[in-house]
Amino acid sequence: MSKIGKRPIAIPEGIEAKLEAGRFLVSGPKGKLEMMISPLINATLEDNKIVFKIDDVGNREKRSMWGTTRALANNLIEGVLKGYEKKLEVVGVGYRVEADKKNLTLTLGYSHPIILVIPEGIEVTITKNVINVSGNSKQIVGEFSALIRSQKLPEPYKGKGIKYSDEIIRRKAGKVMKAAGS
């Protein structure tokens, strides 16, 4: 039995949820999202709750999809209700970040600026050296944040690069110089 899969998801007020032909549609104050439900999973809407079931608990593939599907559906509901947000810090002398509606421009010490196209449904705001990525889809917010971070990973000696605001970089000591003539 899947501990996560067998728990029903309560649909809060202000959220409209529908099941149509293998798709789960959710709309709320932060927008609309949808996901495909695996044919291995049976989903039903029962008095303001969505319940996921499988017919063969012994089948390993069905069990694994059961918990995953329930978690993804819960993420959709959370996304259209509250939204998701990731903060990244840009650490380094001369590193600059600029954003307009469609593009994010990163100047990170390379010979050229890096231009990233902001995905639809994602909002990027910049305050000083902090990039705030927000949107209603947990997956897209996480993927775009990871793409930004991958442009200049934080290095362990001086800590320069792009890091998540809650990330801790383990620092290393630099080379130790020996005294001359020893």
Automatic annotation (TrEMBL):
Annotated GO MF terms: rRNA binding; structural constituent of ribosome
Q: Which InterPro entries match?
A: Ribosomal_uL6-like, Ribosomal_uL6-like_a/b-dom_sf, Ribosomal_uL6_a/b-dom, Ribosomal_uL6_bac-type, Ribosomal_uL6_CS
Superkingdom, according to UniProt? Answer: Bacteria
Does the keyword Endoplasmic reticulum belong to this entry? no
The keyword DNA damage is annotated on this UniProt entry: no
Which GO terms of the cellular component aspect does the record hold?
cytosolic large ribosomal subunit
Please name the Pfam families in this protein's record: Ribosomal_L6
Per UniProt, the keywords (alphabetical) are:
Ribonucleoprotein, Ribosomal protein, RNA-binding, rRNA-binding
Q: Which residues form the Large ribosomal subunit protein uL6 alpha-beta domain?
A: 11-83, 91-164
**One example of a Gene Ontology biological process annotation:** cytoplasmic translation
> What is the purpose of this protein?
This protein binds to the 23S rRNA, and is important in its secondary structure. It is located near the subunit interface in the base of the L7/L12 stalk, and near the tRNA binding site of the peptidyltransferase center.
Q: How does it assemble?
A: Part of the 50S ribosomal subunit.
Instruction: Write down the PANTHER family for this protein, in alphabetical order.
Output: 60S/50S RIBOSOMAL PROTEIN L6/L9, LARGE RIBOSOMAL SUBUNIT PROTEIN UL6M
Q: Which family does it belong to?
A: Belongs to the universal ribosomal protein uL6 family.
Mind telling me what this protein is named?
Large ribosomal subunit protein uL6
Identify the species of origin. Candidatus Doudnabacteria bacterium RIFCSPHIGHO2_01_FULL_43_23
